[in-house]
Amino acid sequence: MKPLKKISLLSCFLFALAVNGKAQTIYTNGKIITVDAANTIAEAVAVKDGKIIAVGTLKEVEKVKGADATIVDLKGKTLVPGFIDGHSHFMGLSRSALVNVGSPPMGEVKNIAELVARIQAFQREKKIPAGEWIDAYGYDQDQLEEKRHPRKEDLDAAFPNNPVTITNINGHMSVSNSYALKVSGITAKTENPAGGAIERQKGNNEPTGLLQEGATRLLKRPAKPAATFEEQLKDLKEKQLYYASNGITTAQDGYTSFESLSLLKKAADKKALFIDIEVLPGYPTLDKVIADPAYKFGVLENHLKLAGTKLVADGSPQGKTAFFSKSYLVEVPGCNHDECTGFPNINQQQFNDAIQKAFKNNIRPFVHCNGDATIDMYLKAIETANHDLNTNSNGRRPVTIHSQFVRADQLDSYKKLGIIAAMFSNHAYFWGDVHTRNLGPERANFLSPLKTAIKKGVVATNHTDYPVTPINQIFLLWTSVVRESRSGKTIGADERLTPLEGLRAITINGAYEYQEEQSKGSIEKGKLADFAILSGDLTTVDPSKIKDLVVLETIKEGKTIYKKQ
After folding, report:
1. Average pLDDT estimate for 434-451
2. Mean pLDDT, to the nearest integer, of 439-460?
3. Average pLDDT over residues 101-127
4. First to last CA, the chain
5. What is the distance, to the nearest Å, from the Cα of residue 548 to the centroid of all Cα atoms in its chain?
6. CA–CA dist 411, 338 (Å, integer)
7. SS3 of 321, please?
8. What share of the chain in percent tops pLDDT 90?
9. Are 443 and 405 in contact (CB under 8 A)?
10. pLDDT confidence tier of residue 64, bands split at 50, 70 and 90
11. CB of 552 within 8 A of CB of 533?
12. Proportion of the chain in helix, strand, coil states, percent, rounded to 5
């Protein structure tokens, strides 16, 4: 018998590499939009162990084909990177726990009478007893036939024995009936809290029921019984599937409570998350999170990452609580003087302290700023932190969430300071007409100025702020391309993006927002195999038809997590 030849460790490694380096799945026969630096269109992409191992022509990709590789025939459909949610509230709504009183397309309510009837039907359906709080969500005063906020009197007759609160679609204000105000101790003598306002009846101090910004925290709801962990996991699964059905492979929870953070951490440890979730603990909970060794910022583990902290610095432009350097052009609830500019939720010193705390702890700030005056405050806070801490904000990538009415000169400061503009083009459709009326055409046309940001070299992402607007990423892309309002008017023609620019804003730029552009956001060798398969080619379809495209399948790290039935 001949002696066995010794096989070196190097030979074993090379042999294993040759076998294990072969693709398990190859996608081909469709249009593959990579959104790499050159916006390359590929014929095929090969995947192994959740990562992309080859992209290019079919001939090139077939070189890494494994013997048992699955060939996915795209049948002429379009493959794009999985969508990366620039900002939403993943944990924000349990869709079955609240009654939807939104107007089309968010709901079916057209007037206040229908709103009240919808809540009454919910009360009957859920058999809600006297004394129990009823919560509704989604009313939009500008879409109601009355063109006003509901008042407590609109609710009192229908709900004499229950506290009722309806939260605005913008999430920054709510209306409560007299019962809710009474049990919360909100009366004519109650002073406006810092960063909030109680709307009063004309001629006296009696509350109308409308509570804005920080005033909503005056409501004293009793604690609700906690759901079981199994029920919470089921809810998390439904939420992930909902996001995945819209092609999203990375989601954001844009203002995470400590309770939600704890639940997500438990779910991650249990391997119950299957899309990446970027959480932003709300600034009021930051000290508690920092003090807990279980939480580390900037580390993606088991599909969960603490990406930064969220600070809410002003309110809603359509709700007239966003803080501007120039006045609104229409009456502003709660403002009894000529210069009604909205208001910030914090003062400059508090802003400075918050940014410095974030920088000192190497935590990235994500700050909600809608009005240009609030953005001025944010810029000053960052500049102050850079000076006082002898640091540079560029590597930290601060984020301005919404940047809704950022000025052109402020975008120059974004570029200088390394700030990411997380914009919200859905406003052009949902409230473009409202902004034109409230702010005038000059400011309205420059809302979410994605094109100008790109021209100035600012990294800009796009988002839905779900549940404020639908999570549908294709609709979001459409609004960035056409910028068409509900009435059909173009809101800022110069700010319209090309379809590819719109796609980049919700893929590779989204990855940059989370400092993950090396591992996701484009279809390139070495990155995660996060894909969405679309029903058509968004780059060639008539721009007006982009919104009609649908997500057929969503793939996360090589595994299908959603497939349209």
Report:
1. 98
2. 98
3. 92
4. 61
5. 21
6. 29
7. coil
8. 86
9. yes
10. very high
11. yes
12. 35, 25, 45
Q: Each residue of 366-423: pLDDT tens digit?
A: 999 999 999 999 999 999 999 999 999 999 999 999 999 999 999 999 999 999 999 9
**Rounded distance, CA 466 to CA 246, Å?**
12
Cα–Cα distance for residue pair 539/162, rounded to 1 Å: 52
Structure-token pair, residue 25: 């799945």
Tell me whether strands 164-168 and 173-176 are parallel, antiparallel or unpaired.
antiparallel
Residues 6+ apart with CB under 8 A from 163: 133, 134, 176, 177, 179, 180, 183, 184, 221
Query: Cα-flanking dihedrals φ and ψ of residue 278, to 5°?
Result: -95, 115
- Cβ atoms of 205 and 196 closer than 8 Å: no
Tell me which residue has tokens 């508690």.
Answer: 288
The answer to whether 135 touches 96, Cβ cutoff 8 Å, is: no
CA atoms within 13 A on the CB side of 56: 10
Angle at 162 between CA 159 and CA 166, to 5 degrees: 75
How far apart CA 280 and CA 293 sit, in angstroms, is 17
Three-class SS of 56-95: ECHHHHHHHEEEEEEEEECCCCEEEECEECCCCECCCCCC
Q: How many angstroms separate the Cα of 286 from the Cα of each of 186, 256, 290, 295?
A: 29, 10, 6, 11
Which tokens is 316 given?
A: 């809603």
Running DSSP on this structure, what letter comes out for residue 254? E
Query: H-helix or E-strand containing 302?
Result: none
The pTM score is 0.88
Helix (H, G, I), strand (E, B) or coil at 35: coil
Residue 438, both tokens: 């409230």
Residue 11 has pLDDT above 50, yes or no: no
Work out the number of other CB atoms within 10 angstroms of the CB of residue 131: 11
Q: Is the pLDDT of residue 93 over 80?
A: no
